[in-house]
Specification:
CATH class: Alpha Beta
Order of helices and strands: HEHEHEHEHHEHHEE
Structural class: alpha/beta
CATH topology: TIM Barrel
Number of strands: 7
Largest sheet: 5 strands, parallel
Helix content: 40-55%
CATH architecture: Alpha-Beta Barrel
Length: about 200
C-alpha cells in the first residue's frame, strides 16, 4: 500500500487503498490573503499540525509560502488566477524549501473548464519535473462519492507527463516522514535535527 492523501475530509469505511495513517494525520489548511496574517497562522499552527497546507492564490503569497520551509504543501496555486499559478521562480523556491505543489482532484470535477485545469496541471508538472520540485495529487474528498482510487489519480498524473507513483506514494510519504520527525521532537530548526544515541 503506502498511498497517501492528507485531504480526505471524512473517515471512510473503505479507503480504496489510501493509507489510514495519512487520513488520520492532523492536517491544517491555511487560507489567508495577507502575508502578515499568513505568517501568524503558520507560527500558531506549525507545532500542532502534522501537515501544514497553504491554499494558494496570489503570486506574492504563493512565493512567500514556497519560501517558508514550515509549509508542507502549496495546494492549487492557480486559485483566482488566469494562469497556472506556478512559474520557474516559485518551482525553484519550492524545491529548495521542500514545499510540495498540490494538485486538487476536486477542482477537476467541479470545474466547467476541465481542459484548462488539466492544461495548468500539465504546465505545473513540467515545471516541477524541471526543478525537481515535489508534487502530489489529493482527492480533497468530503464524502464517499468524492473518493477516487490512488491508481486512477496516478494514471492522470502519468498522462500529464508526471510520475504518478511519486504523486500518490513517494512525495506524500516524505511529508509523513517529516511529520513523524516533528512528533519525535528531532527537529531543532529546518535543516537541523537531533540524532538519537
Amino acid at each position: 500500500m503506502g498511498f497517501h492523501d492528507f485531504l480526505i475530509n471524512f473517515e471512510p469505511e473503505n479507503t480504496l487503498d489510501w493509507s489510514q495513517e495519512a487520513i488520520d494525520t492532523e492536517t491544517v489548511i491555511l487560507d489567508e490573503e495577507d502575508w502578515g496574517q499568513l505568517k501568524k497562522k503558520i507560527q500558531k499552527n506549525r507545532d500542532e499540525a502534522e501537515v501544514l497546507v497553504y491554499l494558494g492564490g496570489k503570486n506574492k503569497l504563493n512565493r512567500k509560502a514556497v519560501e517558508d520551509p514550515r509549509i508542507d504543501i502549496l495546494l492549487h496555486p492557480e486559485n483566482f488566477r488566469k494562469d497556472s499559478g506556478l512559474n520557474h521562480v516559485l518551482a525553484r523556491k519550492a524545491a529548495e524549501n521542500n514545499v510540495a505543489i498540490g494538485l486538487d482532484f476536486s477542482k477537476l470535477y467541479s470545474s466547467k473548464r476541465r481542459d484548462l485545469v488539466m492544461a495548468d496541471w500539465r504546465k505545473n508538472i513540467e515545471l516541477c519535473n524541471k526543478y525537481n520540485t515535489p508534487y502530489l495529487i489529493t482527492t480533497n474528498a468530503a464524502e464517499k462519492e468524492d473518493l477516487r482510487p490512488p491508481r486512477d489519480l496516478a494514471a492522470i498524473i502519468n498522462v500529464l507527463g508526471g510520475d504518478g507513483i511519486k504523486a500518490v506514494r513517494q512525495n506524500p510519504g516524505k511529508i509523513l516522514e517529516k511529520a513523524e520527525k516533528r512528533r519525535e521532537n528531532r527537529h531543532v530548526r529546518p535543516g537541523v535535527e537531533k540524532v538519537k544515541e
